[in-house]
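quick one, 227 residues, struct below
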Amino acid sequence: MIIHVNGVDLFYETSGQGHPLILLHGLDLDHTIFNELAAKLSAHFTVYVMDNRNHGQSVKTEDYSYEAMADDVHALIEALQLEKVYLLGFSDGAVIALHVALRHLDVLEKVAFLGLNLKPSDLNNACMNFYKSMYEKTNSPLYRLVIESPHIELEQLKTITIPTLLMAAEREIFRPGLFDELMAGFPNVTGKEMLGHKHETYLVHQDLLYPDLLAFFGNEDTHLPEL
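---
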């Protein structure tokens, strides 16, 4: 369905019942990457999946900034009168989720960052060269966004005091050492590296994370299982 918030029309779907859990997709993707995962999570949570502005069925605008997309998420939470939301973001969605946490921490209870970076310089050379090549070919503002932003300092993570889950693939698109730096930066963090996986293979159209996310968001007295 379409909801008008923060001056834009956003597409979102909801399923299940329970504590609200919002899932944010990555660059040049849409909400359907979560189909398999949301189907399982909806047995325990009210799951909200949305298309970020300039993606999927949401409106196309001239503002492609992470800050605007974070404010969209906050406005959606306010419009739907959701309280103490669980929030998960993947890749660019993780950057958006981080901006939500930095700007509107009071609306969140727990947050999960999957494949997070703080700066363009966190991308490894192969990934940055790919995005630069795609921008040269397409002139798409989406690729320019990744090349030029975000710009978040490691010390800013100290302000995110709510329970935090940080996940990354063993074969990531980021420079070595970033995961350990992020783990040290968040004050209340649980972390897991997905062995044998690339940036997207453990999440996109997969339900592999279901037990991990149930353990984290569901307050189950278990450790995150090794997948």
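Helices lie at 35-41, 66-79, 92-103, 125-138, 141-148, 178-185, 210-217.
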